[in-house]
Amino acid sequence: MMSNHSSVTEFYLLGFSGSQELHHVLFAVFFLFYSVTIIGNMVIIVIVCVDKRLQSPMYFFLGHLSALEIMITSLIVPAMLWGLLLPGMQTISLTACVSQLFLYLALGTTEFALVGAMAVDRYMAVCNPLRYNTIMNSHTCISVVTGSWVFGFLSEIWPVYATFQFTFCKSNVLDHFFCDRGQLLKLSCDDTLFTEFVLFLMAVFIIIGSLAPTIVSYTYIISTILKIPTASGRRKAFSTCASHFTFVVIGYGSCLFLYMKPKQTQAAEYNKIVSLLISVLTPLLNPFIFTLRNDKVKEALRDGVKRGCQLLKG
User: Fold this and answer.
1) What is the distance between the alpha carbons of residues 97 and 7, in angstroms, rounded to a whole number?
2) How far apart are CA 29 and CA 276, in angstroms?
3) What are the pLDDT digits (tens) for 275-299?
4) How crowded is the C-beta side of 195, counted as CA atoms within 13 Å?
5) Element (DSSP H or E) covering residue 246
6) Which of 127, 148, 218, 250 could hold 114 in an S-S bridge, CB 3.0 to 4.6 Å?
7) DSSP class of residue 51?
8) Could you tell me whether strands 173-174 and 90-93 are parallel, antiparallel, or unpaired per DSSP bridges?
């Protein structure tokens, strides 16, 4: 597909294997998932902004988390859907490939930082309720969110720069549906072992760095909940954390499988499956996790639907 030199100007994405009929089925399924993801997360953002009952740090963070989910899935899925409709390999320019990889990693890192901050917020709400409003004020929340975004984008500049410093002389065909770093490194004729190890260490730092406060926070949260004398009190206390805890298990579980390996160049099919979990399934589940397990959000949704019906009747 290309001669033996490093001046790559574009890559070809193999996408999914199988017949065109299978591709059409996958298109229908992923299009449905994507539509539900966008609508569901947009609904969360709107109700968090307009409903006074949701004007608290937890829902402020949730609004930003939903925005991140929309951006992450929109970065990957529309191009993937386009590739399923068209026969053959899809072309992506070098600039678009660099941009896609950087934004994907930066938004994912931002999400890790935000999820860790949400765990600390739940710790404060359960374990220090009297000081909660004083500590988790609007200034603190804005600073935490801003810090998460800045950290996410700054921390991924070098990893992406290092990835594209290699010579891609084996081929310019990526066995993936987007510009995956592991598959990019497979195309290099250079020795990528040291860089892969550094990237692994950075992934450990980012994932474990955000997972550590989550683990510590939930250790204290569970300990505090178990000390509550009544069963109804324990249920009420845990209900404030159940949604976030569920999201943590799903989100961290899939990312640990994909990034926490010293060798970045795993099998293509393995990468595709885990990437689908991160870019399609987790953003899809987010609205359901935070609505079905949260009474305040359900109440706000019911009231919003009632107001909408009244406006339509009027």
Assistant:
1) 14
2) 12
3) 888 888 888 888 887 776 677 777 8
4) 19
5) helix 231-259
6) 148
7) -
8) unpaired
Residue 196 is which amino acid? E
Residue in this structure with the two tokens 């941009």, named with its chain if needed: 99
Tokens of 95: 């600039």
Say which amino acid occupies 75. Answer: L
Q: What is the pLDDT of residues 231-246, one digit of tens each?
A: 877 777 777 677 777 7
pLDDT the model gives residue 89: 80
Q: Are 122 and 217 in contact (CB under 8 A)?
A: yes
57 burial type by CB count under 10 A (0-12 exposed, 13-18 middle, 19+ buried): buried
List, in order of start, the domains of the chain with CATH numbers. Answer: 10-313 (1.20.1070.10)
Question: What gap in Å lies between CA 191 and CA 201, rounded to an integer?
Answer: 18
CB 148 within 8 A of CB 114: yes
Instruction: Determine how β-strand 173-174 pairs with β-strand 10-13.
Output: parallel
Q: Which two tokens stand for residue 311?
A: 């406006």
Neighbouring residues of 150: CB distance < 8 A, sequence distance ≥ 6: none
| Rg of the chain (C-alpha set) | 22
Position with higher pLDDT, 214 vs 32: 32
User: Two tokens at 49?
Assistant: 């902004």
CA distances 119 to 109, 201, 222, Å, are: 16, 23, 12
Which residues face 11 on adjacent strands?
A: 92
Give the 3-state secondary structure of residue 173.
strand
Q: Which two tokens stand for residue 69?
A: 């989910």
DSSP for residue 190: S
